[in-house]
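Quick entry between incubations.
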Amino acid sequence: MAEYIAQGVFRLMNAVSTESYASVAGKMEGDGPLGKYFDEIIEDSHFGRQTWEQAESQFQLEAVSLAIRKSGLQKENIDAVCSGDLINQCIGSAYGLRELEIPFLGLYGACSTIAEGLLITSLLIDSGAVRRTIAVTSSHFSTAERQFRTPLSYGGQRTPTAQWTCTASGAVMLSGETGGVRIVGGCIGKIADMGISDITNMGSAMAPAAAETIKRYLAATGTSPDDYDRIITGDLGTVGSTLVKELLIRQGIDISRQHCDCGSMIFDNEKQDTHCGGSGCGCSASVLCGYFLPQLESGQLRNVLFAATGALMSPMSLQQGETIPSIAHLVHFRKE
Amino acid sequence: MAEYIAQGVFRLMNAVSTESYASVAGKMEGDGPLGKYFDEIIEDSHFGRQTWEQAESQFQLEAVSLAIRKSGLQKENIDAVCSGDLINQCIGSAYGLRELEIPFLGLYGACSTIAEGLLITSLLIDSGAVRRTIAVTSSHFSTAERQFRTPLSYGGQRTPTAQWTCTASGAVMLSGETGGVRIVGGCIGKIADMGISDITNMGSAMAPAAAETIKRYLAATGTSPDDYDRIITGDLGTVGSTLVKELLIRQGIDISRQHCDCGSMIFDNEKQDTHCGGSGCGCSASVLCGYFLPQLESGQLRNVLFAATGALMSPMSLQQGETIPSIAHLVHFRKE
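Done. Structure below.
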């Protein structure tokens, strides 16, 4: 059973734990400071396929297959997979996981998708309806760049606030077994929109959503940042990370000692010329699975909030003069 | 608690019931045979907004607002809304529901989205994490046509197997209260792909997914079509409806007496020149909320399977030579 705490905030009473997880990343992510933590580095940006979209599907299939292999189980043992990506109509997910024949729930949470998938799959297990699930997501620099910005061959200049979409995927297998890293609570994000319309400054657009979600979870659970080892955001980048701390400080919440951001960690922004850092669904998913979950599993970290952030605009909505709505979903991990 | 029956198939033991529902449809849907059943008909295809995408958002906002008004509750009483649509990055949902400030879970299940949303929200309530949810989805003829096919002003000829994307939205509010129409079980769909690549013949692409899901639910629950008053598919249209029955007959399952299809019912295909019928996320959602749920609520129908179908391709995946993967999620409704 889960316990209702407040609107969109809940606590999980029964064990829902990671049984396995896997991360697969591209060459540039492999060359970054977290490169050694990923399970697999794929040097070929096409991953042996003909198009970048097919390559992204392959990243996702590989992450799920690896998570299953690491668990020692078979795909028939997985009752549901929750997945989404940034490509129009989420084809990275649908084509990537098509051959697995695992019951499939498609999500669209932009770069917040891995946290959304973890919230949903943990509650599906908690209900008893399914026994074992996988939450997975992916992004690919080349599929995102041509869809959201400009054709790669155009060679457009990137602004100082721009982020670099990660080529990566991360998959988390959950079950009711004990022993892994537990999910003990969560907060479903609300859509926030502070009026930012600059597609090259996504960190600023997403920071208010992260601040709102973190604040709401802390308030509902009666906890403070000092109760946690880490408060991790998804892909705010360096500008967005400064902003989220500032927004929370103004409300009396200081997360500066606990905060880290997957997007700010995955690249060496100066050496790799990645401006404000990494982004994309695969950014927070691969950093969670490659870097943070192993530290939780080993007990190095014990109590962690993970708030992945997503920007819910499209190129068309911006062309139509809209601003960028964003969202952050929060997952509370604990190792006992 | 939910009971696990088989991979992706479950039974709900506690009450999870409709507390309210609403349907909003466009002029052409209003002129069709089900026109009198929808809560609201919006004659203006722009719904007072400047673009069709904004109009689709308005349809979704109206359906959710109406469902809340009909319940006598406030938006603060809703703990989570699950929503998705067909527009790239699901902007129909994100911009439509932005102002509500209800915790938001974005889905992408193409035209199966209302069933996917009902499965997820029913299990969220069942877990105890949330008390009251809304599942909603929308589609708009003009947003879909220019995105998936050709600009409207191009005036392309439509093939005999083509379907007409409905301009409509449907929203279902669920809670743990008794008294409404109960959701007593469900089946999470698997991705099926029989190699169809004709974007103007979506019914044929989706029929195998519907057949697989219906067969799997019947087998897992040990029931036969005669146990149900209706077996409803989402938007197979007339060609797909013939196919799903044929596919199931070959496996010894005859649904011909119980089967009906929202896409085949919403238009008078001859008079309205809609070829094989209606389609789109809003098709099955509005027909469920406008036509079937009231019949269940009144006891006219008592035991119904609702399997909404979705095609998970994109224009780009087809340009890259891919076939059309499809999916069907099944919700089992009962009135006691």
